[in-house]
Amino acid sequence: MLLKQSDMDIVETVGNVENIKTIMRRNKPEVIILDLGLRNRNSFNLVKLLKKNFPAVKIIIMDLVPMDTEIFEFVQAGVAGFILKDATVGEFLKTIRSVAKGIQVLPSNLTGSLFSQIVEHAVNGSKPSALMDSVRMTRRERQVIELISEGQTNKEIAQNLHLSTYTVKSHVHNILEKLALRTRVQIAKYLHDSRKKDSASEEISLLE
């Protein structure tokens, strides 16, 4: 597909990244498409390695469904674009061309929700824990998040907040949209991770 594009040239396809520095120096690519396959810490470390040694290269993450603060870390590490596995050919090519021009790209289903805040925090060097506060949540949505983290069902939340179950479902849907998450479990984990990071930063401040 890429070879058919007049404005693109594949200089090399790499399956083993042990000699990535040598390969990069030999081919001098402008854009790298990194297929994560299974998400793991090695992929994140590879991005950091590439950006440290080749700061001008633009990196696109492929086959990643961004969740929690992982996307924050990848953007902060220097990733310029994201392509989901269900992207169309047109979206795939457009992402590559946009990133090559210096434009940051995220799949359309996440644009306008969390990404603008993520980029802002990454550029300004803010802590990942600040992401939760940056997303505009209503007071009721924050209450629902707290109760979800306690393991309560929609019916239980409705009883506690004196709302209808339908209203609670609507709040949960809005929360998932705003945080670019997919399940209630991820909402609970998001809040847990945010609090853990806040706690860790407080401990570090005391030690300093």
Describe the structure.
This protein folds into 2 domains: 20-126, Rossmann fold (3-Layer(aba) Sandwich), CATH 3.40.50.2300; 136-200, Arc Repressor Mutant, subunit A (Orthogonal Bundle), CATH 1.10.10.10. The protein has 10 helices and 3 strands, in the order αβαβαβααααααα. The protein has helices at residues 20-27, 41-53, 70-77, 89-100, 115-124, 131-134, 139-149, 154-161, 165-179, 184-207, and strands at residues 31-35, 58-62, 79-83. Strand 1 (31-35), helix 2 and strand 2 form a beta-alpha-beta unit. It is elongated and about 65 Å long. The chain starts with 19 loop residues before the first helix and ends with a helix.
Strand content: 5-15%
CATH superfamily of the largest domain: Response regulator
Low-confidence stretches: 200-208
How many independent structural domains? 2
Biggest sheet, spatial arrangement of strands: 1-2-3
Number of helical segments?
Answer: 10
Most strands sheet: 3 strands, parallel
User: Globular, elongated, flat, extended or rod-shaped: what is the shape?
Assistant: elongated
The secondary-structure class comes to mainly alpha
Task: Report, as a whole number of angstroms, the end-to-end distance.
Answer: 53 Å
If you compute it from the alpha carbons, what radius of gyration comes out, rounded to the nearest whole angstrom?
20 Å
| Overall strand count | 3
- CATH topology description of the largest domain: Rossmann fold
Helix content: 40-55%
Order of helices and strands: HEHEHEHHHHHHH
The CATH class of the largest domain is identified as Alpha Beta
Arithmetic mean pLDDT? 77
Identify the CATH architecture of the largest domain.
3-Layer(aba) Sandwich
